[in-house]
Amino acid sequence: MNFSSKKSLGQNFLRDQSIINLITEKGNINKRDVVLEVGPGTGNLTEKIIQKNPKDLILIEKDERLAFYLNKKFGDKIKVFNEDMMKFSYQNYYDKRLIIFGNLPYNISTQILAKWVKIKNLDKFCKKLILMFQKEVADRIIAKTNSSNYGRLSILSNWKMNVEKVIDIEPNCFEPAPKVKSTLLVFTPKKIFYEINDPTNLEHITNIFFSQRRKMIKKPLKFLFTNFQDIAKKLSLDLNLRPQNLDNITYYKICKAYESLIN
Fold it and tell me: Closest by alpha carbon to 91, among 55, 112, 116, 57?
């Protein structure tokens, strides 16, 4: 069945079978796994996931037409929630070690990623995430220190997860074809990561630093700390550096110092 895509929902349906096969294989699904697919669209990837025989397959599809169609097509092999993936309560799945698949709508991709990263026991919530982003966003997620793409998104994403780039995907693999390339990334939760009390503090700090990324770090440090020189000394920071010169661990340490100040 053909569906016209809804621009308001950022719909681009993946059609290329070789890419669909590659995505499925990256999941390493076994019969004990609970799989969550967000934005399944017309179910092209869903079909391949079902062939891997997971224990459960949960779909979150905001488009009512598609949710109805998927229910009809796959029946009791799936459980469909006709909901917004951003508003969906993941609470019932916090200990399921999900394998999450998603061709994320470009307009909310960074928000949904941040929502998942902030889940407390991430390694109990999910085993891995296989997600597709607009290439420009993916480049920011995997960016390293001292590069122009490095910033808030890479610092938050790499805090609790290891990120692997799989492949860039051409627009003609989708229907309708988007105007830009996409990139497939695999995220694996870390067992050990830097302890931060509240991830919104990390977002706050990186926002302050990177809203003026060309300025020296003295300015945001001064804004955050009255004793900024003591903090700089304690963390061995050169105040003449720019925000992109500090590695992600340094931002986690700055966040920890900020939290000890406000708590």
Answer: 116
- Indicate whether 182 and 256 sit together in one domain: no
Q: Is 125 helix (H, G, I), strand (E, B) or coil?
A: helix
Concatenating the DSSP letter of every residue in 107-158 gives: TTHHHHHHHHHTSTTHHHHEEEEEEEEEHHHHHHHSPPTTSTT-SHHHHHHH
Identify whether residues 14 and 122 lie together within a single domain.
yes
Domain boundary among 159, 189, 219: 189
147 near 118, Cβ under 8 Å? no
Average pLDDT, the chain: 93
Which of residues 5 and 28 earns the better pLDDT score?
28
Here the tokens at position 131 are: 């997600």
What phi, psi does 119 have (nearest 5°)? -65, 135
AA identity, residue 136: E
The rounded percent of the chain whose pLDDT value lies above 90 is 87
pLDDT in tens, 29-73: 999 999 999 999 899 999 999 999 999 999 999 999 999 999 999
Give residue 141's Cα distance to chain centre. Answer: 8
Question: Tokens representing 98?
Answer: 């999900």
Nearest to 187, CA basis, from 119, 89, 93: 119
Tell me, yes or no, if the pTM score tops 0.90.
Answer: yes
